[in-house]
Each structure stands twice: as structure tokens, then as C-alpha cells.
């Protein structure tokens, strides 16, 4: 199909480059006309071009006219629904403001008034690409959460992403500070600043992933956004030999709770060194571990800070050792009243800094973003 003038006239086609790398084309006045009737002088250019195939769905459609002004333009899908768009103030260009659908044929229609005051008509069609696979993504934190100052932003994909550069270019964070995206595996990219977030920061995440080519014929399914807030600055410090769990607000100590940490002389049971992140809170949690001979062990006010298995929680059954001896399986045991007070003060995303242990946990147990040195973190960016 070519862009045509609806007046029973033959066509002269004009060409322009399309955004998808194909030739553009336009309808214009012209052809074999009688001396008594000259063709309209207005000339259309459409991008993508009439007849274009495999058109990208996330690039705006544009219709422009030379030697005239646009009076109406529509681009409709196979169901006859027009996509949204707008004619510019100078009436020389119409640009779509709505994404296209995959695997659809769209039809152009439009009119322009030429400098000769004659009306020229536009017709044409193009077809968008059909992915061989579609990849969905999710973003965390989600909208309206208030989180701690160590909270990473995580975008996870339901299939591996081959073209990570393209995917990462579609992601933005406001305010960006000095933060950087880092690919932790082929299906996950996280963002964090070099130091903890400033307290009370309003964060906006924009993931314009719809239509992004991930490689091997796979494309993004949806655009995603998230708006969340960084809360107050609270940091937990655990120096294992002291038997104390210290809570700091804005750098000032607000609490110090007697604790019993992991067994000092057992690398499998010690509370390991590292900067961890509060990732889960439960009023009750079962700590069954048949491998070590205990079942039906339910404790209160459980705050998980590593999916290696470390929590801060109540353990009144271990009261004799709390504040005196490290005897747990790796968790921080507190007396019930202290555990409740800490639980109520904590946020998902708070940092938990552990030092003084015989073991340092490798950076592989979620959420391990802060266990990766900043110099190394930056090398994990795709761009």
C-alpha cells in the first residue's frame, strides 16, 4: 500500500527515513493532470513509512506536511480505534502520544490544506513487530512504601535478559544521587547509592521497558513506575563480642539491648560479619531446623536481615545467656520486651552492620547489595 491522494489522481510518492531504519513515504499532489486542474501542492511524510513492517512499538508515529498545514490526522488499529496524538502548534506535524501494540496493522488517514488552498488526503498503513518472546518485570519497593536508608531498588525479570545495556538504559531513578545500577544475575538489576540514602528522600523509579528489545526476539511487556519514601535514618550495629545490639538514629544511640548472638567458635552457627538489610518482619516465626535437632520452635518479634537465616528476635528461653554469652544458631536473641521495642522501631530496608565475628558471609544471600564494595558494585553496571 502507498500513501495516496483521494481524488482519482495518480500519485507521486515522497520519501523520508523511518525511525525503524526503513524508508518513509508520503502522498503528495501530482501525477497526470489536465491543464485545467493542477494537483494539490501539499506533501505528506509519514514515519514509519507506508508499508513498513516490524515497526517498533515504543517509537512515536509522526506525520508531517510540507507546503501546507495539517487539518486532521488519525492512526487507527485493526479494531478501528484511533491512537492518541496531537497536531503541533504550527500545524506542520502530528505526533502520537500512545504506544503501539505488538503484531498489529495500523492505518493512516489525514488531510492537509496546501499553500494553494487545495486539500490533500493521506492514506497508508504499517505493521508492528511480533516478539518471539515477551519478558515481564517487577520493581521493588512498590508505591507508597516507607523504607530504611539501606533499601536497594530491584528490577526483576521473569526470563534472562540478553541485551542488558538496552534494559538498563530504560531505567531511571530520581534523585539519582551518585547511585548506580548493578546486574546481580541475568534476571535482576539493582540500584543503590554509594552511601546510605539521605533520610526522608522521595524516590521515583521509572522503568520504560515496554517495547525494549532484550535480544533474541524478546521484548518488554510493560512500563513500570514506583514512588516511595526513605524514612528516618536508623542503623543497627552488632559487635559480636560485646553481647549488645545497639540502635542508632541519625548517628546517635537510642537503645542498647543485651543480646546473645551466634556461637563464637562455630563457623556454621556464628552471626557473620557484613552489612545486611532488614528484609522481613513477622510477629511470630517458626525457627524449626531438624538438621540441628529442634522443631516446633516459634519465637516472637522476628526481624529477618539475611536469607542465609539470620534474624533479630525474642528468645526468653535463652535468657540465661542474653547479654553474657553467644549461644544462638546465628540469630540475635533478645529478651521479649526488648525484641518488641526493636521490632516496633524497625523498617524494611534498615541496615544491620555486624562486626567482630569469626566468619564473613559471602555476597550471595539476599539482600546482599551492601556486602559488595562500591568499587566492585560499579563494575556490575551494563553501561
TrEMBL record:
<keyword id="KW-0573">Peptidoglycan synthesis</keyword>
<dbReference type="Pfam" id="PF03734">
    <property type="entry name" value="YkuD"/>
</dbReference>
<keyword id="KW-0961">Cell wall biogenesis/degradation</keyword>
<dbReference type="InterPro" id="IPR005490">
    <property type="entry name" value="LD_TPept_cat_dom"/>
</dbReference>
<dbReference type="InterPro" id="IPR041280">
    <property type="entry name" value="Big_10"/>
</dbReference>
<dbReference type="InterPro" id="IPR050979">
    <property type="entry name" value="LD-transpeptidase"/>
</dbReference>
<keyword id="KW-0133">Cell shape</keyword>
<dbReference type="GO" id="GO:0005576">
    <property type="term" value="C:extracellular region"/>
</dbReference>
<feature type="active site" description="Proton donor/acceptor">
    <location>
        <position position="313"/>
    </location>
</feature>
<comment type="pathway">
    <text>Cell wall biogenesis; peptidoglycan biosynthesis.</text>
</comment>
<feature type="active site" description="Nucleophile">
    <location>
        <position position="331"/>
    </location>
</feature>
<dbReference type="GO" id="GO:0008360">
    <property type="term" value="P:regulation of cell shape"/>
</dbReference>
<dbReference type="GO" id="GO:0016746">
    <property type="term" value="F:acyltransferase activity"/>
</dbReference>
<feature type="domain" description="L,D-TPase catalytic">
    <location>
        <begin position="234"/>
        <end position="355"/>
    </location>
</feature>
<dbReference type="Pfam" id="PF17964">
    <property type="entry name" value="Big_10"/>
</dbReference>
<protein>
    <submittedName>
        <fullName>L,D-transpeptidase</fullName>
    </submittedName>
</protein>
<dbReference type="GO" id="GO:0071972">
    <property type="term" value="F:peptidoglycan L,D-transpeptidase activity"/>
</dbReference>
<dbReference type="InterPro" id="IPR038063">
    <property type="entry name" value="Transpep_catalytic_dom"/>
</dbReference>
<dbReference type="GO" id="GO:0071555">
    <property type="term" value="P:cell wall organization"/>
</dbReference>
<dbReference type="GO" id="GO:0018104">
    <property type="term" value="P:peptidoglycan-protein cross-linking"/>
</dbReference>
<keyword id="KW-0012">Acyltransferase</keyword>
<keyword id="KW-0808">Transferase</keyword>
Amino acid at each position: 500500500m502507498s500513501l495516496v491522494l483521494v481524488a482519482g489522481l495518480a500519485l507521486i510518492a515522497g520519501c523520508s527515513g523511518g525511525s525503524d531504519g526503513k524508508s518513509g513515504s508520503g502522498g503528495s499532489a501530482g501525477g497526470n493532470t489536465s491543464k485545467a486542474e493542477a494537483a494539490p501542492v501539499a506533501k505528506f511524510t509519514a514515519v514509519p513509512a507506508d508499508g513498513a513492517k516490524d515497526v517498533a512499538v515504543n517509537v512515536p508515529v509522526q506525520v508531517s506536511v510540507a507546503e501546507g498545514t495539517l487539518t486532521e490526522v488519525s492512526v487507527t488499529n485493526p479494531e478501528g480505534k484511533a491512537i492518541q496524538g496531537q497536531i503541533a502548534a504550527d500545524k506542520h506535524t502530528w505526533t502520537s502520544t500512545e504506544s503501539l501494540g505488538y503484531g498489529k496493522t495500523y492505518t493512516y488517514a489525514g488531510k492537509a490544506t496546501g499553500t494553494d488552498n487545495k486539500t490533500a488526503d493521506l492514506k497508508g498503513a504499517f505493521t508492528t513487530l511480533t516478539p518471539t518472546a515477551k519478558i515481564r518485570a517487577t520493581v521493588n519497593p512498590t508505591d507508597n512504601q516507607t523504607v530504611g536508608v539501606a533499601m536497594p531498588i530491584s528490577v526483576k525479570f521473569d526470563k534472562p535478559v540478553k541485551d542488558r545495556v538496552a534494559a538498563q538504559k530504560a531505567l531511571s531513578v530520581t534523585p539519582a544521587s551518585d547511585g548506580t545500577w548493578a546486574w546481580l544475575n541475568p534476571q535482576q538489576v539493582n540500584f543503590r547509592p554509594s552511601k546510605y540514602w539521605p533520610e526522608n528522600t522521595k524516590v521515583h523509579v521509572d522503568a520504560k521497558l515496554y517495547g525494549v528489545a532484550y535480544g533474541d526476539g524478546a521484548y518488554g511487556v510493560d512500563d513500570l513506575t514506583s514512588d516511595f519514601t526513605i524514612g528516618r535514618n536508623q542503623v543497627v550495629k552488632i559487635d559480636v563480642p560485646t553481647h549488645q545490639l545497639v540502635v542508632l538514629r541519625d548517628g546517635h544511640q537510642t537503645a542498647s539491648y543485651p543480646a546473645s548472638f551466634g556461637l563464637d567458635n562455630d563457623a556454621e552457627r556464628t552471626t557473620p560479619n557484613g552489612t545486611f538489610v532488614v528484609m522481613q518482619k513477622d510477629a511470630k516465626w517458626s525457627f524449626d531446623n531438624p538438621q540441628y535437632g529442634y522443631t516446633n520452635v516459634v519465637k516472637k518479634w522476628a526481624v529477618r536481615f539475611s536469607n542465609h537465616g539470620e534474624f533479630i528476635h525474642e528468645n526468653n528461653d535463652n535468657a540465661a545467656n542474653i547479654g553474657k554469652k553467644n549461644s544462638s544458631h546465628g540469630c540475635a536473641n533478645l529478651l521479649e520486651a526488648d525484641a518488641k521495642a526493636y521490632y516496633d522501631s524497625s523498617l524494611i530496608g534498615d541496615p544491620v552492620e555486624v562486626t567482630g565475628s569469626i566468619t564473613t558471609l559471602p555476597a550471595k544471600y539476599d539482600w546482599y547489595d551492601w556486602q559488595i564494595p562500591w568499587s566492585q558494585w560499579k563494575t556490575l553496571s551494563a553501561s
